Structure formats: C-alpha cells, structure tokens
Amino acid sequence: MQVISKFTPQMEFIVSLYVFSTKSLWKKVDLGTKWRNKTAKSFDEDFLEQLQNEDILTTISCVHSAVLQGETGESIEDLLSWISETDHLPPSLPTINQLPAEPTVPIRETGHIFEQWHRNYFSSLEPRIFEELNDQHLKTEEALNQLNEVDVIEKTTRGFYLENQSDEQKVYLLPQYHSRPVVLYSYGENQLYYQYAADGITGPGQSIPPESMRAQQALADENRMKILKFLAEGQPETFKKIHAYSGLAKSTVHHHLISLRAAGLVRIHISPGRPERFSYREEGLTEMERKIKKYITS
Q1: pLDDT mean over 266-278
Q2: Residue partners of 297: CB distance under 8 A and separation at least 6
Q3: E strand map for 16-166
Q4: Considering 173, 197, 221, which residue would you say is the last residue of a domain?
Q5: Does residue 24 fall inside a structural domain?
Q6: Which among 47-61, 106-120, 192-206, 258-272 has the top mean pLDDT?
Q7: Is 4 helix (H, G, I), strand (E, B) or coil?
C-alpha cells in the first residue's frame, strides 16, 4: 500500500461547492445550515435551481473525480480553463464512486456554475484557510516519512483503520475545511481518496476550533455512551451486532456511530472482503483533554 498526501486549492473549491449543493450534509458539517443559507444570498434563484438538477450534480461529481486525480492542474484558474475546454472525462481517467463513464451534461456547459461559485463565494475566503490546509498536508507528508502508513491514515482521518490492503493499493490523504467533521471518501480501481477534516482551523465568527467541542457533544448522549462501553469491552464489532445490542433503529445507530467517529472516539476497521467493524478509540478522550487544556491555558 502506498499512501500519498496532496493539497491544491482546487480540492477545497470542489468540496465547498459539493457541501453547498448537498442538502444531506448541511446539518452534519461544522459550518452548518446557517452558513449555507447565508452563502445562498449571494446567488440568484437560477443558480440555486440549477444546483437542484441531478444531471448537473452528476457532472459536477465527474469534475470532482478529475480534480482528485490531478487532471485539472492546481489553481482555480487552471480548473476553470479545463472546464471551458472539456466535454467529457478523458478515456484514460477512471471515474470514482461508480459514477457514469460520461457526465450527464457536457462538462463545459457547467462552466458558468463554477465561475459563479468562484466569483461570488470562493474567491473571498480568507487566505489563511489555504495556508493552514497546506500546513496540514505538509505535516501529514512528514508523518508518512516517520511513522507506519496505516497509523498515519488512522490518525489523520481520526478513525479509519485499513487492514490487509494489497501492495497495489494507493491511498490519497487530502485535507479539507468545508466538510468538517465529515470525511469524504471516494474510490477507483486500487485507489482510495480520503478528504479528511483539517481540524484546528477556526472559521469566521469562531473563537474555539469545532473539534474541541465534538467529543463533549458526542458524550452528552446516554445511548452513545452505552455504545462506547459495549465497544470498549471486546473485539471490534460489526454494525449488525451494535444494532442488536443497542435496541435502537438502524438509522439512529448509524447517526450515533457517525457522531462518535467525528469526535475521534470510534475506529472503523476496513478490510477487503469483510464488513466494516467498529472499536473504541481511547486516544480520542486523551486528545479531547489535551486540546481543551491547550485552549484554556493558551
């Protein structure tokens, strides 16, 4: 297995548009529905309606694939130029997440959407966000030179633990800000892309990094505490066993596990040919204590 750390502004650009246009994420990300509604005021109704069109969203996802796989350059200007000259994905470019081989709407026909997003929102982001994202990339790169690759993936993603991966497998670690604490993951043949939460960056109007609050919020629920106790008592368990133990609805258990993983309290064991398993991540509590003390005493 080969693990690679990467960052370009394009990656954050495409994540920001993806989060803005994906309703199911608005309540899950740190920026929240408030950010989405405030940002929407900068765009006209035609733009917002287009982002509800499934065909256009599929094409945007295809562009996302091209960005992740380095086909579009590095700068936002490179990306906008590539979009204006491209109808379809290059034949040699495998799609990710089982997307259609061809975008539903020709890529160049979505150029105005990307241009408006850049002009009305993305170009006004604070430069420090990109500086801190690049710093996170460099720290991950340094860690890969010093530590076990599996451990670096687990620490960087705060819980994704890859087991028994093939020698041909390539794993890309890409820091992102807009989707925190959600880890966006994509896959192709022998390729895994983890767009992980670059914690420690404070957003507009924030004085405390959201990561400092997640573990406390995750623990402020009796059912989540029971799930953690169950996981701490034995070996990694499947979702099926956690669901049976909890007696809760599947959707509720799924929500609890997402919250616990986002807080760094649950590890997800991923192994080819086996269902995902979950275990208690004790260092999550240690990290929470350290970060809270650092904030209070600094």
Answers
A1: 93
A2: none
A3: 160-162
A4: 197
A5: yes
A6: 106-120
A7: strand
**DSSP output for 132-172:** HHHHHHHHHHHHHTTS-HHHHHHHHHTSEEE-S--TT-EEE
Q: How far apart are CA 214 and CA 211, in angstroms?
A: 5
Q: Who's near 65: CB < 8 A, 6+ residues apart?
A: 89, 93, 95, 96, 97, 99, 186, 188
Q: Which of 102, 124, 146 is the last residue of a domain?
A: 124
Query: Are the beta carbons of 172 and 68 closer than 8 angstroms?
Result: yes
> What pLDDT score was predicted for residue 144?
96
Amino acid identity at 4: I
Residue 114, burial from CB neighbour count under 10 angstroms (0-12, 13-18, 19+): buried
DSSP assigned state of 121: T
* 248's tokens: 């809760």
DSSP string, 220-286: SSHHHHHHHHHHHTSS-EEHHHHHHHH-S-HHHHHHHHHHHHHTT-EEEEE-TTS--EEEE-THHHH
